[in-house]
Amino acid sequence: MANDANLEKIQGVNVVVYARKLAEAAKVAGQLIPYQTSLSIDPQRDSDKKKTKSGTVTTTSSLETDFKFEFVNNWSKIADQLLDSIFDNEEMEFWAVNRQRKNSEGQYYALYLRGKVTEDSNDNDPDDVSSRETTVTVDYGPVRGWVTLSEEQEAELAYIFRGVGAIEGSPKNDGTDGAGKAWNKETDAGQGVGND
């Protein structure tokens, strides 16, 4: 058995949900659900036992998956499309991406699911931000695999250093670095030149 001290412990904050309308698969990349606060994936099979004269026979049903997540309510395109799914009975694709687990090609471990949103509840307490809990009825999956995240998708998941110069291009994620350079632990530690 592996030494438990050497095992990577998965932190919940590192498992995030991406989604998109299945009908838009040819033209839109999966979108990160902004401000996620929780995620629950529960694959299961019901089982039944029947006693026979020669022993017990166990049968199992087909795979069913409970899939739900919570996030701070917002007006992003993907948040609106979750409501489209329930209002218009539209099928969506979902990925639960584990940012801690990569393969040798730099791809992230993920579970892929398809389904329709069947519940989308709002909590709007006066002393807190509005939150949503979205429940998906899964028709397909989960299927395990590896996903590649674009630079823009990576930037959504991490703090990016920028210089004080003007940003050319989109000011959010895909513009220039503002004449700055991110810190590199391997090469920059101990570096520096004093002012003369």
Structure description:
There is one protein chain. With 196 residues, this protein is mostly beta strands. Helices cover 11% and strands 42% of the residues. A seven-stranded antiparallel β-sheet has the order 2-1-7-8-9-6-3, with helices on one face. Strands 4-5 form a two-stranded antiparallel sheet. The longest helix has 12 residues, at 77-88. The protein is globular, with a radius of gyration of 22 Å. The termini are far apart. The model has no long low-confidence stretch (mean pLDDT 84).
List strands and helices in order, with pairings.
Layout: E1 15-21, E2 31-32, E3 36-44, E4 47-52, E5 55-60, E6 64-72, H1 77-88, E7 92-102, E8 108-123, E9 131-147, H2 151-156, H3 185-188
Antiparallel strand pairs: 1-2, 1-7, 3-6, 4-5, 6-9, 7-8, 8-9
Protein name: Phage tail protein
Region (Disordered): 168-196
Organism: Limosilactobacillus mucosae LM1
